[in-house]
Amino acid sequence: MDKGTVIRTIVLAFALVNQFLVGFGLYEIPGTEEEQTVVISSVFTFIAATVAWFKNNYLTAKGKKQREVLKDKGLSK
């Protein structure tokens, strides 16, 4: 896996754990009200999920082949 995939996966995992904790009332961001905590957590989860899953992570064999073709043609990092 490339560095971007690892970072996006870690951020998504953190967001999902945070959403679970907020949903069960086990964690609140200090200095905010309960409603603000839910909104902030939901927005964070939505952004992390969108970036993690809609970004081409090249996880499958087909995706890895696509990455190699892009690199060979100089179209990717």
Characterization of this structure:
With 77 residues, the protein is an all-alpha fold. The longest helix has 21 residues, at 3-23. It has helices spanning 3-23, 34-54, 61-72. The protein is elongated. The mean pLDDT is 79. The chain has one domain. Helix 1 packs antiparallel against helix 2. Helix content is 70%, strand content 0%. The protein has three helices and no strands.
Q: What composes the largest sheet?
A: none
Radius of gyration: 17 Å
Shape: elongated
Order of helices and strands: HHH
Total domains: 1
Q: How many E-type strands?
A: 0
What is the helix content?
over 70%
Structural class: mainly alpha
Distance between termini?
14 Å
Strand proportion, as a percent range, falls in: under 5%
Query: How many alpha or pi helices?
Result: 3
Unreliable stretches covering 5 or more consecutive residues: none
Précis, in short:
By secondary structure, the protein is mainly alpha-helical. About 70% of the residues lie in helices and about 0% in strands.
Index terms:
77 residues, mainly alpha, 3 helices, 70% helix
